[in-house]
Amino acid sequence: MIRLVIISDVTIGPCMGCARMARLDDRVCSSCLGAPDRGRRWAELADHCRRDPAFAAAVYERIESPRGRQLFLALFAGART
Question: Whole-model pTM?
Fold first, then answer.
């Protein structure tokens, strides 16, 4: 089990967006916050997909493009937190 480490005002742990260990700003790493196609809302959605298989299945069904489905599976298939 991975836990968050809080040192002063710095939090280090897994990002809720990309799941990589990093310095966090309210559970989201700077890479996810700064990316033009991501952000805090994307990180919250990614976290929800990892935690709730029924929600992830519903999101997957709404994706229309084969490439989008392929990317979704690459990110979330088998994800457990």
Answer: 0.71
